[in-house]
Amino acid sequence: MDLKRQGDLAMKKSITVGLFTLASAVAHAAADTAPDVLARSVTDEVMTIVRTDKDVQTGRTDRLSQLVEIKVLPHFNFVHMTQLAVGRNWRQATPEQQKSLVDEFRTLLVRTYTTAFMQYKDQTVDYKPLRMAPTDTEVLVKSLIKQTGGQPVAIDYNMENLGSGWKVYDVKIEGISLVENYRNTFNSEVQRNGVDGLIKALSDKNKAISAQTAKR
Predict the structure, then answer these.
(1) Residue 121 · residue 26 · CB < 8 Å
(2) Residue that wins the pLDDT comparison between 53 and 208
(3) Whole-model pTM?
(4) Termini Cα distance of the chain
(5) What is the DSSP string of 93-107?
(6) Per-residue pLDDT tens digits for 138-149
(7) Residue 153 bridge partners (DSSP)
(8) Which fold has domain 3-214?
Protein backbone atom coordinates (compact mmCIF):
# COMPACT_ATOMS: atom_id res chain seq x y z
CA MET A 1 0.00 0.00 0.00
CA ASP A 2 1.53 3.36 -1.01
CA LEU A 3 2.00 6.32 1.28
CA LYS A 4 -0.92 8.30 -0.12
CA ARG A 5 -3.40 5.46 0.32
CA GLN A 6 -2.05 4.53 3.73
CA GLY A 7 -2.00 8.15 4.76
CA ASP A 8 -5.61 8.59 3.67
CA LEU A 9 -6.59 5.50 5.65
CA ALA A 10 -4.75 6.77 8.70
CA MET A 11 -6.37 10.17 8.31
CA LYS A 12 -9.82 8.62 8.06
CA LYS A 13 -9.19 6.65 11.22
CA SER A 14 -7.78 9.75 12.84
CA ILE A 15 -10.88 11.85 12.19
CA THR A 16 -12.38 10.64 15.42
CA VAL A 17 -8.97 10.90 16.97
CA GLY A 18 -9.09 14.58 16.22
CA LEU A 19 -11.00 14.73 19.43
CA PHE A 20 -8.06 12.93 20.86
CA THR A 21 -6.42 16.30 21.15
CA LEU A 22 -8.64 16.21 24.13
CA ALA A 23 -6.18 13.95 25.84
CA SER A 24 -3.55 16.67 26.09
CA ALA A 25 -2.85 18.84 29.08
CA VAL A 26 -3.68 22.51 29.46
CA ALA A 27 -0.64 24.74 29.17
CA HIS A 28 -0.61 25.94 32.77
CA ALA A 29 -1.49 22.63 34.43
CA ALA A 30 0.79 21.25 37.09
CA ALA A 31 2.85 18.19 36.27
CA ASP A 32 1.39 16.27 39.20
CA THR A 33 -2.20 16.64 38.00
CA ALA A 34 -3.68 13.30 36.98
CA PRO A 35 -3.54 12.88 33.18
CA ASP A 36 -7.20 11.90 32.89
CA VAL A 37 -8.17 15.05 34.79
CA LEU A 38 -6.10 17.11 32.38
CA ALA A 39 -7.71 15.34 29.43
CA ARG A 40 -11.20 16.05 30.68
CA SER A 41 -10.33 19.67 31.36
CA VAL A 42 -9.08 20.19 27.82
CA THR A 43 -12.10 18.35 26.42
CA ASP A 44 -14.47 20.79 28.08
CA GLU A 45 -12.44 23.87 27.22
CA VAL A 46 -11.71 23.09 23.59
CA MET A 47 -15.17 21.78 22.73
CA THR A 48 -16.83 24.80 24.30
CA ILE A 49 -14.75 27.07 22.08
CA VAL A 50 -15.40 24.94 18.99
CA ARG A 51 -19.15 25.01 19.58
CA THR A 52 -19.42 28.73 20.34
CA ASP A 53 -16.69 30.50 18.38
CA LYS A 54 -18.28 32.31 15.44
CA ASP A 55 -15.21 32.04 13.23
CA VAL A 56 -15.00 28.28 13.78
CA GLN A 57 -18.72 27.90 13.15
CA THR A 58 -18.35 29.61 9.77
CA GLY A 59 -15.69 27.11 8.74
CA ARG A 60 -12.54 29.14 9.29
CA THR A 61 -9.89 26.45 9.56
CA ASP A 62 -7.20 29.02 10.33
CA ARG A 63 -8.99 29.95 13.56
CA LEU A 64 -9.31 26.32 14.49
CA SER A 65 -5.67 25.69 13.67
CA GLN A 66 -4.76 28.48 16.08
CA LEU A 67 -6.84 26.77 18.72
CA VAL A 68 -5.04 23.50 18.14
CA GLU A 69 -1.66 25.25 18.28
CA ILE A 70 -2.41 26.97 21.59
CA LYS A 71 -4.34 24.30 23.46
CA VAL A 72 -2.93 21.06 22.13
CA LEU A 73 0.46 21.02 20.49
CA PRO A 74 2.61 21.98 23.49
CA HIS A 75 1.46 18.76 25.12
CA PHE A 76 2.28 16.27 22.39
CA ASN A 77 5.66 14.56 22.37
CA PHE A 78 6.08 14.78 18.61
CA VAL A 79 9.69 13.65 18.71
CA HIS A 80 8.74 10.43 20.48
CA MET A 81 5.74 9.93 18.20
CA THR A 82 7.92 10.36 15.11
CA GLN A 83 10.58 8.02 16.47
CA LEU A 84 7.97 5.33 17.01
CA ALA A 85 6.42 5.87 13.57
CA VAL A 86 9.75 5.84 11.72
CA GLY A 87 10.99 2.87 13.76
CA ARG A 88 14.47 1.49 13.16
CA ASN A 89 15.01 3.91 10.27
CA TRP A 90 15.19 6.78 12.76
CA ARG A 91 18.80 5.87 13.59
CA GLN A 92 19.72 6.11 9.90
CA ALA A 93 18.57 9.71 9.66
CA THR A 94 20.90 12.63 10.24
CA PRO A 95 19.92 15.23 12.87
CA GLU A 96 18.70 17.49 10.06
CA GLN A 97 16.61 14.69 8.56
CA GLN A 98 15.19 13.82 11.97
CA LYS A 99 14.09 17.42 12.45
CA SER A 100 12.44 17.45 9.03
CA LEU A 101 10.64 14.19 9.79
CA VAL A 102 9.30 15.56 13.07
CA ASP A 103 8.19 18.81 11.42
CA GLU A 104 6.40 17.08 8.53
CA PHE A 105 4.76 14.42 10.72
CA ARG A 106 3.66 17.10 13.16
CA THR A 107 2.10 19.11 10.32
CA LEU A 108 0.29 16.04 9.01
CA LEU A 109 -1.21 15.22 12.41
CA VAL A 110 -2.17 18.84 13.15
CA ARG A 111 -4.07 19.15 9.89
CA THR A 112 -5.79 15.86 10.56
CA TYR A 113 -6.93 17.04 13.99
CA THR A 114 -8.10 20.39 12.66
CA THR A 115 -10.22 18.65 10.03
CA ALA A 116 -11.61 16.34 12.68
CA PHE A 117 -12.75 19.20 14.89
CA MET A 118 -14.70 20.70 12.00
CA GLN A 119 -16.53 17.46 11.29
CA TYR A 120 -17.03 16.00 14.76
CA LYS A 121 -17.58 18.95 17.05
CA ASP A 122 -20.85 17.51 18.36
CA GLN A 123 -19.43 14.27 19.69
CA THR A 124 -19.13 13.66 23.42
CA VAL A 125 -16.22 12.08 25.25
CA ASP A 126 -16.40 9.87 28.33
CA TYR A 127 -13.24 8.92 30.19
CA LYS A 128 -12.86 5.67 32.08
CA PRO A 129 -11.43 5.60 35.63
CA LEU A 130 -7.65 5.83 35.51
CA ARG A 131 -5.53 3.05 36.93
CA MET A 132 -2.34 4.71 38.06
CA ALA A 133 0.21 4.36 40.85
CA PRO A 134 1.76 7.50 42.36
CA THR A 135 5.17 6.57 40.92
CA ASP A 136 3.97 5.83 37.37
CA THR A 137 5.58 7.89 34.62
CA GLU A 138 3.59 6.27 31.80
CA VAL A 139 -0.14 5.66 31.80
CA LEU A 140 -2.95 4.59 29.51
CA VAL A 141 -5.93 6.94 29.50
CA LYS A 142 -9.05 5.26 28.11
CA SER A 143 -12.05 7.02 26.66
CA LEU A 144 -15.16 6.46 24.58
CA ILE A 145 -16.21 8.78 21.77
CA LYS A 146 -20.00 8.76 21.63
CA GLN A 147 -21.54 9.36 18.23
CA THR A 148 -25.16 10.12 17.48
CA GLY A 149 -26.66 7.11 15.75
CA GLY A 150 -23.45 5.10 15.93
CA GLN A 151 -21.52 2.79 18.20
CA PRO A 152 -19.08 4.35 20.69
CA VAL A 153 -15.47 4.36 19.55
CA ALA A 154 -12.79 3.31 22.03
CA ILE A 155 -9.83 5.70 22.08
CA ASP A 156 -6.79 4.98 24.27
CA TYR A 157 -4.02 7.49 24.88
CA ASN A 158 -0.47 6.53 25.82
CA MET A 159 0.86 9.37 27.95
CA GLU A 160 4.21 9.94 29.64
CA ASN A 161 5.37 12.35 32.31
CA LEU A 162 8.61 14.02 31.28
CA GLY A 163 8.83 16.09 34.45
CA SER A 164 7.26 19.19 32.95
CA GLY A 165 3.86 17.58 32.51
CA TRP A 166 2.00 14.73 30.82
CA LYS A 167 2.32 14.35 27.07
CA VAL A 168 0.68 12.05 24.55
CA TYR A 169 3.00 9.88 22.46
CA ASP A 170 0.55 7.43 20.88
CA VAL A 171 -3.16 6.89 20.34
CA LYS A 172 -5.02 3.64 19.80
CA ILE A 173 -8.35 3.59 17.99
CA GLU A 174 -10.24 0.39 18.69
CA GLY A 175 -6.90 -1.18 19.59
CA ILE A 176 -5.05 0.07 16.48
CA SER A 177 -2.02 2.26 17.19
CA LEU A 178 -1.76 5.49 15.23
CA VAL A 179 2.04 5.45 15.12
CA GLU A 180 2.22 1.74 14.29
CA ASN A 181 -0.28 2.32 11.50
CA TYR A 182 2.18 4.72 9.90
CA ARG A 183 5.26 2.63 10.65
CA ASN A 184 4.78 0.02 7.92
CA THR A 185 4.19 2.70 5.32
CA PHE A 186 7.15 4.77 6.44
CA ASN A 187 9.41 1.71 6.41
CA SER A 188 8.36 0.81 2.88
CA GLU A 189 8.98 4.37 1.69
CA VAL A 190 12.46 4.43 3.22
CA GLN A 191 13.31 1.08 1.60
CA ARG A 192 12.27 2.44 -1.80
CA ASN A 193 13.56 6.01 -1.66
CA GLY A 194 15.58 6.48 1.51
CA VAL A 195 14.94 8.88 4.38
CA ASP A 196 14.86 11.86 2.03
CA GLY A 197 12.19 10.07 0.03
CA LEU A 198 10.04 9.71 3.14
CA ILE A 199 10.48 13.39 3.97
CA LYS A 200 9.44 14.32 0.43
CA ALA A 201 6.43 12.00 0.53
CA LEU A 202 5.26 13.57 3.80
CA SER A 203 5.87 17.07 2.44
CA ASP A 204 3.90 16.29 -0.73
CA LYS A 205 1.06 14.88 1.37
CA ASN A 206 0.94 18.01 3.49
CA LYS A 207 0.95 20.26 0.42
CA ALA A 208 -1.90 18.25 -1.10
CA ILE A 209 -3.96 18.58 2.07
CA SER A 210 -3.22 22.30 2.23
CA ALA A 211 -4.30 22.81 -1.38
CA GLN A 212 -7.46 20.82 -0.82
CA THR A 213 -8.30 22.86 2.25
CA ALA A 214 -7.71 26.13 0.39
CA LYS A 215 -10.35 25.20 -2.20
CA ARG A 216 -13.09 24.91 0.42
Answers:
(1) no
(2) 208
(3) 0.76
(4) 28
(5) S-HHHHHHHHHHHHH
(6) 999 888 878 777
(7) 145
(8) Nuclear Transport Factor 2; Chain: A, (3.10.450)
